[in-house]
Amino acid sequence: MPSCQNCRIRHQIFIVAGVGFFSLIILSYVRMSALPAENTIASLSQFQDFLVGSIGFLVGHAKYEQT
């Protein structure tokens, strides 16, 4: 891989990992604090989607690197 492409892929991994970690922190905080209000459930569902999507990206990228 050329150096520029390797650097871009590394940046993508850090960004996706950051989004996933941030979503995990938000979801953990809400779970430990109290039951969420009905008007925040849609936002929390989106954070859950971000978390699952970032995990899927990172696992898929790891499989791509091994081949």
Explain what this protein looks like in three dimensions.
The structure is a single chain. The chain has 67 residues and is mainly α. It contains two helices and no strands. The longest helix is centred in the first third of the chain and has 31 residues, at 3-33. It is elongated.
Number of helices in the DSSP assignment: 2
Helix content: over 70%
Number of strands: 0
Radius of gyration based on Cα positions? 15 Å
Give the CA-based shape. Answer: elongated
Write the layout of secondary structure elements.
Layout: H1 3-33, H2 41-66
Helix pairs in contact: 1-2
Short summary of the structure?
Helices cover 85% and strands 0% of the residues. It is an all-alpha fold and 67 residues long.
Features:
single chain, 67 residues, mainly alpha
